[in-house]
Amino acid sequence: MKVGLIGDIHANLPAFEAICNHIEEEVDCIWDTGNFVGYGAFPDKVVSLVREKNIISIRGNYDCKVLKFRQKEKKWRKSKRYEKWLAFKWAYENLSEESR
Description:
three-stranded parallel β-sheet; 10% strand; mainly alpha; 3 strands; single chain; elongated; Purple Acid Phosphatase, chain A, domain 2
């Protein structure tokens, strides 16, 4: 069996689509090492595409942080760089309930 191994998509939908199109015909399945979200502009679309393509995935550290954003929002606002806090916030707010 040939496995395509990907990771650290970070909501970069154009790059994710390009790599999927490139490897889909070459592999039997795709495994993802996590970090679908965080920083990129398309968190919900990336998660939906992972689900649609039946990609075997694990949650990465950024995925976990985005999912915990509401509980940690105030603490992280004080302890994290503003850009990182804002990226977590934006990703959380731009994920559908189903994708979360």
